Fold this sequence. Notes:
The protein has 174 residues and is an alpha/beta fold.
Amino acid sequence: MKKVEDYVRTIPDFPEPGIMFRDVTTVLQDAEGFKLAIDEMKKLLDGVDFDVIAGAESRGFIFGAPLAYAMGKPFVLIRKKGKLPCETVEKSYDLEYGSATIEMHKDSVKPGQKVVVVDDLIATGGTIEAACELIEELGGEIAKVVFLMELAGLNGREKLAKYDVASVVTYEGK
């Protein structure tokens, strides 16, 4: 029986020498691989009490929406600044080179709701740390943070240490 990592393509020296790029597109391009990815992420939520799933643009949408559908939960978008039409809250955070800002609709998470945050990959953890802070500003509680893949060598889990974090696949390097 295949594992999720069997569907992940590894590209050495991209985008720079020494980096092993973990390509999620090969998971998505294979129906069995995509189903397995969602099923494995769903297993990470066994026994977790939560009300809503939130996903960060854009690959958090790809994995979060089918996960929400499979679990009968609503799905909330966390988008890049300027993409949402109604009143929003925003959070800026640092990237390796520069900064970024994400937003959520003010009414997307209700006070007291328990939220699972989903993304494809945890690297440095900055995007999801900002996403969790936005959810908490809206009065939501982070029930769990779930990733398909984790690059342990980039220490993103440390930024998310106060949350329950789980990954389907962990790669030791960067």
